[in-house]
Amino acid sequence: MRKTKRVTIKDIAELAGVSKATASLVLNGRSKELRVAEETRDRVLAIAKQHHYQPSIHARSLRDNRSHTIGLVVPEITNYGFAVFSHELETLCREAGVQLLISCTDENPGQETVVVNNMVSRQVDGLIVASSLLNDADYQKLSEQLPVVLFDRHMNDSSLPLVITDSITPTAELVADIARQHPDEIYFLGGQPRLSPTRDRLEGFKQGLANAGVELRPEWIIHGNYHPSSGYEMFAELCARLGRPPKALFTAACGLLEGVLRYMGQHHLLQSDMRLASFDDHYLYDSLTIPIDTVRQDNRQLAWHCFDLIGKLIEGETPEPLQRKLAATLQKRYQAGQ
């Protein structure tokens, strides 16, 4: 098999009949600055395009002491919210000429430490992390070496740069509306209680009940994890205990609702009159027979603010504000009388 050979600046220079220094000036965008003849510049660029020349990222890194890569650490890339966020962030990075490296932790603190260390060893310029850790001590220490931005989760009143969605206020508004219709029964299916999204969405749930004048019953709160299988199992056990579907249900994430809907589909419950709501929205909810009200995060804005923070920190700036809480919106699909 013939061994491939990467085209270099030296190759381009020889083909164009110019010095390596001249070819380098043209390919690095400095030809006008240093008065390289327009004809020479056009010839070098045409040959570079013809031979699909790409500048070496290693040479670029050595020149400006950066890797031009950002590390993204998420618990679960198949989670719809994290998948959309990752896509939006990758688009921003690509347009800025930055490579995004993505690693998953599976909500495992030990694995999170491993993937973060791998990112650091690859000399990323900064890290954006949705952490499964309970305190920020490791990231405070790491932030002395490179910029770190937390997103989606907060921990122990961290002073690190942070971007999250306000989940308490819109959850309370949505749950209050449901509780007024079903004051005798509304269940909450959540993820791990140690995670801040679970705590915040549960706090919104409790506030919503209080705002509707409904007293919380302890049995209404059920915890598992954020995998769809957990949503399926919790809902199956709830239906078995009640002998029927609950009158109203709020799930703390899209993945949990996925499991609930799978169970409902298997047991022909999608035509039931259960009031169903969730944190996180999905475009497929518009095509279901059962109406689902949701709290919708703006993943594009989440990605933009993370990108804005990490970019400014890499440049040595102090962005304001350093911690950002974004608003969510309600997507109402249920109509009284349905």
From TrEMBL:
Ion transport recorded as keyword: no
Keyword terms: Activator, DNA-binding, Repressor, Transcription, Transcription regulation
Ranges of residues in domain HTH lacI-type: 7-64
Transmembrane segments annotated in the record for this chain: none
GO biological process: response to fructose
Span of the signal peptide: none
Presence of the UniProt keyword DNA-binding in the record: yes
GO MF: DNA-binding transcription factor activity; transcription cis-regulatory region binding
InterPro entries reported for this sequence: Fruct_sucro_rep, HTH_LacI, Lambda_DNA-bd_dom_sf, Peripla_BP/Lac1_sug-bd_dom, Peripla_BP_I
PANTHER family recorded: CATABOLITE REPRESSOR_ACTIVATOR, LACI-RELATED TRANSCRIPTIONAL REPRESSOR
Protein name: Catabolite repressor/activator
Organism of this sequence: Lelliottia wanjuensis
Lineage of producing organism: Bacteria, Pseudomonadati, Pseudomonadota, Gammaproteobacteria, Enterobacterales
